[in-house]
Amino acid sequence: MTLAVLSAGTKIGISDGQTPPVYNRIPEILTLGTPETTIETIEVTSLDSNAKEYISGLTDGGSVPLEGNWLSGDTYHQLLKTNAAAGTATTFLITLPDTPATKVLFTATPESFVISPEPNSQLKFSFSAKVTGTPDWSTTATVTG
Question: What is the distance of C-alpha 23 from the center of its chain?
Answer without folding.
Answer: 13
